[in-house]
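Attaching the record inline, Q. Sequence:
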Amino acid sequence: MSKDYSVSLVKCDTYDLAYEGYKRALLPLGGIEEFVKPGAKVVIKPNLLMSAKPESGTTTHPEAVRAVIRLVKEAGGIPLIVESPGGPTTGMFVKGVFKNCGISKVAEEEGAEISFDMQVVEVETPNAKNMLKVHILKAIADADVVINMPKPKPHGMMKYTGAVKNMFGAVAGTKKMDYHFKQSDYNDFANSIIDIFLATKVTLNLMDGITTMHKKGPSSGDPINTNFLMASANAFAMDSVTLEILGAEKEKVYVIDQGISRGLCPRDICDIDLFFNGEKCEDITVAKIEGFEIPMKSEKKMTEIFAKMPKWLENILRSRPSFSKTKCKKCNVCIESCPANCLSMGEKAPEVLLSKCIRCYCCEELCPHKAVSIKRIF
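Structure, as predicted:
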């Protein structure tokens, strides 16, 4: 991973201007040619969490992907779009997600290939903390260049999902559930996400922040126009800048907090070289975005308090998933996606066995009907 903490941000109001926007964002970093050489096999990794309409802000917009495909081809690279959505790894399911998110149409129009191969390989993780070896998609491991295209959103478990968290999608389908279950402590899971990110050897991060999601997330919030695109070789620096301009506290984001402690990210935002609309920028407040709401309640101190409580009291007081009996369609996606196997279908909605719940909130993340919310007492 690049130790260059340069981050380039440009204002961009519509997806019709995404190509020009990314091109402007890349100029201070040396242009796309700095990262993509002629003949290079280039993986483009969007955020396709689930089947969702582009305007929902849940997934990387297809027009942003189109723009990056064009840039890669202009530099002489060979683009391949790769993603493992949440849920099963069957070809029909994965193809459905690509189609419903608008990516299949764009790929066909631009002459870019999509990989539906969910084959994984074991790779070593440089500077690992939890996972010396991880299993990631073979298509990503085989690439010469990996371009990460995240979407900045709140996250029920990890507080925020952005550039670093997006590469958790390099893990195939339901294997993600295993990592959730084995690393139920939030800091441990954050370090596993970091280890997976490092194993993917991302070359370039291009964030889609034109329309995204706020209030709740990563799939059940409200869309909001934040009107920016961002480029950086360093995902941790990118996430730090994103949190700063959105008005969130990066120390409360487990992945960034652990990244700082591991020396992967500067603690002080002043140590990041920021470019705004192509010019060196010393005052990040000029890029601030108003109106973005991201819950930042931290459970770190509460976890210490819970450790001293009887288990039955902890289960009552801790946050937990809550299921709407009016919105639930009894599709069973949440039950099939639960790493802890703590959900069962009730008469009108799922019921949760709190003594087994690890508070990963995969149920909220993958519910296609927005029928799950996180109930917090504190």
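The two ends are 37 Å apart (CA to CA). The longest strand covers residues 204-214.

More tomorrow.
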